[in-house]
Design goal:
Blueprint lengths: L3 H10 L17 E3 L5 H8 L10 H6 L14 H11 L12 E8 L1 E3 L5 E2 L4 E7 L5 E7 L23 E7 L16 H12 L6 H14 L4 H11 L6 E7 L5 E8 L5 E8 L5 E8 L11 E7 L4
Antiparallel strand pairs: 1-3, 2-5, 2-12, 3-4, 5-6, 6-7, 8-9, 9-10, 10-11, 11-12
Length: 308
C-alpha cells in the first residue's frame, strides 16, 4: 500500500517542467522527496548535495530551515482579500499571462528506508515554454558557495542572485508542464476550473487548492488581476484560514493563508505580498512527527519575485 505521506510528497514534486507525472520509485530504494522538483531540478541538486545527516527527529530538524512565524490578525479572509486588492496596480506589471516562471526553491530529501536526511541548497529555476507545450527549464545555483551558505537561514534577504547553471533540460510538445496549454482565464470561475484540473478532482480540499496554485505559478506568470481573483476564490474555499502576517524568507511583508491536508499530516502556507498583492511564496510543514522529521519541520518552500 502506498504511504500517504509519499503520495503527498510526489504530488508536491510533480507538474513542473517535463510533465505532470508521478515520481517513480524503485523497489530497493524508496525516496521521499518533498517540494518543488521537476526531473531537471532533482538531477541537478543530486550533483550538489552535502553528505547526508542521520535522520533522527532532532538531527533532521537541524537540516531544515527555521519555521516562519506569523502574528495573528483580526481580519477574516474576505477582509484580507480586499486589503490585497488595494495593493495591486501600484507598480508596472504585465497585461497577459506568460508561459514562464522564475522561482527559488528548496526541499528536504529523506531516504524512506534509512531515514537519512540529505542536505540540499536552494536553487533558482527558470521555465520557458511555448503554446505547443515545448520548452526549456534552466536551473541555477543560488550561491557560489555550498548548501551551508543558504540552507539554514531564516530569511534570504535580499534574495540571492543566480550563480552557475547546473542543469538545462528541454522538453517537447508531448511533455507540457500543465494540464492545458491554454492561458489561464481572467475570472474566478475560469481559475477555479483550471485549479480543479490541476487537482484532478471536482471536489478538491483547501490543501489541494493551495497545491494547485503552486503548480499553476510554477509554469505561468499571471497578471495582477488573476492573482487577485485567486485570493478572492480562496476566500470561499472551506478550510483556508488566515495564519497571520509576517515576513517571508525574502524579507518581504506578507499575509499567510493556511490549509491542512485532510489527514492532518501537513500544512501549506500561501504567502501574499502586502505591498504588491501578488502571491510570492508557498511553504509546506509537517504537523505530525514521523521517524525522520519532527512536528513543525519545514519540508519545502518556493519563492517568487514581487513583480514579473
Amino acid at each position: 500500500m502506498r504511504d500517504p505521506d509519499a503520495t503527498h510528497i510526489e504530488h508536491m514534486r510533480s507538474a513542473l517542467v517535463a510533465r505532470v507525472r508521478e515520481y517513480e520509485r524503485t523497489r530497493t530504494r524508496r525516496r521521499r522527496s518533498v517540494g518543488l522538483g521537476c526531473a531537471a531540478f532533482v538531477m541537478c541538486v543530486a550533483l550538489m548535495i552535502a553528505p547526508p545527516v542521520q535522520g533522527t527527529p532532532s538531527s533532521a530538524y537541524a537540516a531544515t530551515p527555521p519555521t516562519l512565524r506569523y502574528t495573528p490578525i483580526d481580519l477574516d479572509l474576505s477582509e484580507v482579500s480586499h486589503a490585497l486588492q488595494q495593493a495591486l496596480g501600484t507598480a508596472e506589471t504585465i497585461d497577459e499571462p506568460r508561459r514562464e516562471s522564475n522561482y527559488l526553491g528548496w526541499f528536504v530529501q529523506i531516504d524512506g528506508d534509512t531515514s537519512r536526511t540529505t542536505r540540499l541548497a536552494p536553487h533558482w529555476i527558470e521555465v520557458r515554454w511555448n503554446a505547443d507545450g515545448s520548452g526549456v527549464s534552466t536551473t541555477f545555483a543560488a550561491s557560489t558557495r555550498g548548501p551551508e551558505d543558504l540552507e539554514f537561514r531564516d530569511t534570504l534577504t535580499p534574495l540571492p542572485n543566480r550563480a552557475a547553471v547546473t542543469m538545462r533540460v528541454t522538453f517537447g510538445p508531448d511533455q507540457p508542464p500543465v494540464p492545458t496549454t491554454d492561458p489561464p482565464g481572467a475570472t474566478g470561475s475560469d481559475l477555479r476550473d483550471l485549479l480543479h484540473a490541476y487537482t484532478g478532482t471536482v471536489s478538491p480540499t483547501a490543501f489541494d487548492m493551495l497545491s494547485a496554485i503552486e503548480q499553476l505559478l510554477l509554469a505561468w506568470t499571471i497578471t495582477d488581476d488573476q492573482h487577485s481573483a485567486l485570493i478572492q476564490l480562496l476566500a470561499h474555499v472551506e478550510g483556508v484560514t488566515i495564519a497571520g502576517e509576517g515576513v517571508d524568507r525574502g524579507g518581504r511583508a506578507v499575509f499567510a493563508l493556511r490549509a491542512e491536508r485532510a489527514d492532518g499530516a501537513f500544512a501549506s502556507y500561501l504567502l501574499v505580498s502586502k505591498s504588491t498583492g501578488r502571491i510570492v511564496g508557498i511553504e509546506s510543514t509537517r504537523l505530525r512527527a514521523d521517524t525522520a522529521l519532527p512536528a513543525g519541520a519545514v519540508v519545502s518552500y518556493t519563492l517568487w519575485q514581487d513583480r514579473p
